[in-house]
Amino acid sequence: MSWEEEVHEIHRRRRLAQVQGGEEGIAKQHARGRLTIRERIEAVLDEGSFQEQGLATAIPEYDENDNLLGYVPANYVVGFGRVEGRRVVVGGEDFTLKGGSPNGAGLRKSIYAEHLAVQYKIPLIRSLEGGGGSVKGGGRKGGTVGEPVFTEPRFKIIADAMGKVPVVSMAGGAVAGFPAGRMVAAHFSVMARHTAQVMIGGPKLVERALGVSLTKDELGGAHIHAKSGIVDNIADDEYDAFKQVRRFLSYLPSSVEERAPRIVSDDPVERMEDELLSVIPRDSNAPFEVRDIIEMVFDRDSFFEIAPAYGASQVVGLARLDGQPVGVMANDCQVYAGAMTAEAAQKYRRFVEMCDTFHIPIVNFVDQPGFMIGPESERNGTIRYGMAAVAAAVQATVPWASIQIHKGFGVATAAHYGQNAYVLAWPSVESGALPLEGGVAVAFHREIAAAANPEAKRQEIEDRLRQARSPFPRAESFAVHELIDPRETRPMLCQWVDWIQPQLEQLTGSVKFPMRP
């Protein structure tokens, strides 16, 4: 006697579970310009590395005598894989079945993805496309969507994962309801420009509830969410989204218990770019491109910007210094002069908290004219979000370096200095309680109004006070650690990276990756 018959049945059910929505369903998915979930998983992972979990998971259909008539595969696929050799968990909805709306087995597998990532302390990649719950319910023997999943609320494990492992979400098609919640419950999210939409509720639900008729793109297309803050980045297509996910993960550790992966860099630490000497104009109101500074200071081609169109006066991203991953923050003086808007503050706080969670050192280029002012800023509650950004900075425990390059005014400037920050200053920096232009207009308004030539008087006062704001006295009094030649920025920051290695070891309690000799 053997169990051969049952083994044959196991393999038959595994084959049935692989068919997804069948040839017709897959053809429809491709006709919409979108990949299937299995194609997405294969594309984002190292070739041949996927190890699926729940190979025969499905909703079976039985006759009255409990004979198996058919098999509806679970419309969520999950398993282990590798990205650049590092182990990850990956999962996502199968849109070819019920539009990705989860059946009972599919919902359990989707929750299992977070459990796997937390249990094995490895990153989680979600490939999302689905409409959330359905009013149609589940099968007779397969259970229903409303049943409890394991022994705890399904949302707790999602929150737990955010505090323990890197979580990334990508959308290749329409994402609504619960999948949309998963989309934003991530440290990095990206959507395909032409095929993806992200919505709380889809067009039919919106029209029924509100009487407003919109397409999916009008409701939640990439042009909406590039600026809403719902997603971080927009990808040209799904393959670009996979590339961005892999690159984002390359800067992060596998969990909060490990260090970020420092690599060997062939970019000389002594490299000094002459252009840094003139990148800041002498006219304090003249614009410049802060991303040029970032490219000249960090390891070549290592800067990966996050959420460039949201809160655009604040630039955030990941880069490397002598191979060490670091968080990069800077003000973009070409957008509201770099002022902190409500959106910029929220982006800033979220980025600082992510870096602090995964022990990634922060390098901050300070060019802060203050909180954005005006009626729109007041309506947006800027000061509340701004102070939350300040709190995130002062409570962060990661090593922090601040380079004062241009301006630093008001309370908003406090958001640019973490605990025990290493502070460098360029000779181009100007700082104080208020920008001179606005401060002079308020403090000297009577003197200016009484002058024979008010404009000349205003300019005279501004020039006199600007001289008093020279960075040299602050360096002499050790209000900054060093006043430096801008060209020295990279060598000094690479030196700082070596200084902070023991602190990083203490934060994680381990050394998982090679350090530079």
Topology of this protein?
Layout: H1 4-17, H2 22-31, H3 37-44, E1 51-53, E2 58-62, E3 68-73, E4 76-83, E5 86-93, H4 104-120, E6 124-130, H5 154-162, E7 167-176, H6 178-184, E8 188-192, E9 197-199, H7 203-210, H8 216-220, H9 222-228, E10 233-235, H10 238-250, H11 290-297, E11 304-306, E12 314-321, E13 324-331, H12 342-357, E14 362-368, H13 375-379, H14 382-395, E15 400-409, E16 422-425, E17 430-432, H15 436-443, H16 445-450, H17 454-468, H18 471-476, E18 482-483, H19 489-499, H20 501-508
Helix pairs in contact: 4-5, 12-14, 15-17
The residue ranges in which pLDDT falls below 50 over 5 or more consecutive positions are 138-151, 511-517
State the total count of DSSP E strands. Answer: 18
Radius of gyration: 27 Å
CATH topology title of the largest domain: 2-enoyl-CoA Hydratase, Chain A, domain 1
- Per DSSP, the total helix count is 20
Largest sheet: 8 strands, mixed
Amount of beta strand: 15-25%
Structural class: alpha/beta
| Named CATH architecture of the largest domain | Alpha-Beta Complex
What do you see in this structure?
The chain is α/β, with parallel strands linked by helices and 517 residues long. It folds into 2 domains: 4-250, 2-enoyl-CoA Hydratase, Chain A, domain 1 (Alpha-Beta Complex); 274-508, 2-enoyl-CoA Hydratase, Chain A, domain 1 (Alpha-Beta Complex). The chain contains 20 helices and 18 strands. The chain has helices at 4-17, 22-31, 37-44, 104-120, 154-162, 178-184, 203-210, 216-220, 222-228, 238-250, 290-297, 342-357, 375-379, 382-395, 436-443, 445-450, 454-468, 471-476, 489-499, 501-508; strands at residues 51-53, 58-62, 68-73, 76-83, 86-93, 124-130, 167-176, 188-192, 197-199, 233-235, 304-306, 314-321, 324-331, 362-368, 400-409, 422-425, 430-432, 482-483. Strands 1, 4, 5, 6, 7, 8, 9 and 10 form an 8-stranded mixed β-sheet that branches. Strands 11, 12, 13, 14, 15, 16, 17 and 18 form an 8-stranded mixed β-sheet that branches. Helix 12 packs parallel to helix 14 (382-395).
